[in-house]
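$ run holo --ligand "beta-D-galactopyranose" --emit tokens
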Amino acid sequence: MKRLIPIMILCNFLLIKHSGLAQIPKSPDVNGKEWHDTQGNFINAHGAGILHHNDTYYLFGEIKKGNTWLVAGQSWEDYRVPAGGVSCYSSKDLKTWKYEGVALSPVKGDTTNDLDTGRVIERPKVIYNRATKKFVMWMHVDKNDYSYSRAGVAVSDNPAGPYRYIRSVQPNGQMSRDMTLFQDDDGKAYLIYSSEQNNTMQVCLLNDDYLSPTKIFSRILVDRRREAPALFKSEGKYYLITSSCTGWSPNAATYAVANQVLGPWKEYENPCKGAGADTTFGSQSTYVLPINGKTKTFLFMADTWNKTDLKQSGYLWLSLKINNGKVEIKKFVY
Ligand code: GAL
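-- output --
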């Protein structure tokens, strides 16, 4: 490990130097170790997303604490930890993070409630609705066997919350598991989710208040079995990073490109390059953040899951570049 530290520092230095971006922080946790807030506490925000509002970044993520257990009777490694609700951290520079508290609280002892600690609350994402002046959070809510497959929505007057849970839905009667939100420049917002038993993704336009799905939706990456969507826009084109479906174990990412959010989408190869690319460097995508003033460089955010002790899961943040229309994510930039 001692020998690794100078390499990590050098790589992070090169990452910043070569991208010319003071704003791209060094990866908070390239090796699955702890990452701390301004009070020195472990940052607990998994499957995270970022809202950039009034010059402040708000990081939202799954709170994972308590013991991990394996759900019996499943054909796959269904490791679970209590659903701890959604945390919020704020930052001006993406490097120093202040804990803002629990943005969405879980519910204890009510197994019928979507937010019960015995259920699943994953991949929260927040966008701001300029018309209603509300902050809107969507998330994946589920039962331990992932049969419930719904998208939950919550709302707040303040970016950091507290958020008031409204309800969960299956958009147009469709299953919704791993998901993300995308807000376009015209103010329209979309829910992107793994559907149809994870076989096919869907994109659904939200209503103007962002609180419910419209009837307008499309099926994308049909029969490709993709999840962990992270959608972003660069110079008029839409890009979607996804993972394959191997539970908490990492696998190779792909990216897709479209001229419209609803598609059609064309899938391309693994955007990750270099050693470790076949497992997304041991991680799974969760969000891609635009960086102020940059059109071709983004921040790729991913989780390094520790499946047998989920609260110990780490984070991997890397620079993502669009190079001649191709997406490239490298762990080490030389
Ligand atoms: C992953 C998914 C995670 C979580 C996990 C459960 O594939 O991306 O968000 O749902 O499965 O095993």
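-- notes --
The domain at 7-330 is CATH 2.115.10.20 (Tachylectin-2; Chain A).
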